[in-house]
Amino acid sequence: MKANPIVGQGTSLHQWQGSRLLAQVASIDILTLVPPSARAVIIAPHPDDEILGCGGLLQLLAAAGRPMLLISVTDGSASHPGSERWPVERLTIVRPQESAEALRRLGLPMNSLKWLRGGFTDTRVATQEDSLCTFIETHLHPGDVVFTTWREDGHSDHEAVGRASAEAARRVGAICHELPVWTWHWATPEDAVVPWDRARKILLSPAQVARKRHAVHAFASQLEGDPDAGLAPVLAPYVIDRLLQPFEVVFL
Predict the structure, then answer these.
(1) 57, 1, 78: which is closest to 179 by C-alpha?
(2) What's the pLDDT tens digit per position in 102-161?
(3) N or C: which terminus of the chain has fewer CB atoms within 10 Å of its end residue's CB?
(4) Which of 22, 52, 11 lies closest to 186 in space, CA to CA?
């Protein structure tokens, strides 16, 4: 198993803002990626990844009336290991509730949004990858446009979900695009590991970024650490700042 690259404070927003390669990434219209006849399928490893990776994209799709399916692969219950304040039993209930509130804050049509919970084990998705691929395949249609985490994103669950989603999409004749989430933490701005040739920017207005920020702050459990258990917040301010640029990046 490769070492966990998600350590320390990572690459700063200031460094990313000075990136030559990121500045050169072309923009693309999300409504071109998801044409009127298509359904968008967002596959999130944990409750919050759908907001962190594509909260702006979701707003644009909802405003255009595109049908959407959200799949939450795990319930995110392993985010605070050893914590008495945030035990697994509490997180299992709270984290999906936080996602629901975040989606409401984005302005998504909760009465018509189809949302599936996979029930896979947080931090252990790679051991269940074949089952996950079959589960995803069951819920995909030919012509769907899938958005999920990048297969090299640095978190084992993100990578397993990326691989399983890509394979399921291939099997049914859907299109799969990947989103960097933790990449912004461990990668360097000119990093050759990042597939910049596949990258496109989805441009966001200030209002859309503000709404995404409001949605991110629905995840109270992730904004809080547990000092008694030696746990820092998962979503520290420097993590959130990197994910609230005036664009989101998708790897085609």
Answers:
(1) 57
(2) 999 999 988 888 999 999 999 999 999 999 999 999 999 999 999 999 999 999 999 999
(3) N
(4) 11
Do residues 209 and 246 touch, judged by C-beta distance below 8 A?
yes
Structure letter (DSSP) for residue 231:
B
Q: What is the DSSP letter of 234?
A: T
Percent of the chain with pLDDT over 90: 93
- DSSP secondary structure, 9-74, as one string: S-S-HHHHHT-HHHHHPPB--HHHHS-TT--EEEEESSTTHHHHHHHHHHHHHHHTT--EEEEEEE
Structural domains in the chain, sorted by start:
13-251 (3.40.50.10320)
* Helix, strand, or coil (residue 88): helix
pLDDT digits (tens, 9 = 90+) for 26-70: 999 999 999 998 999 999 999 999 999 999 999 999 999 999 999
* Kind and range of the H or E run holding 123: none
For residues 180 and 193, is the Cβ–Cβ distance under 8 A? Answer: no
Q: How many CB atoms lie within 10 A of CB 223?
A: 16
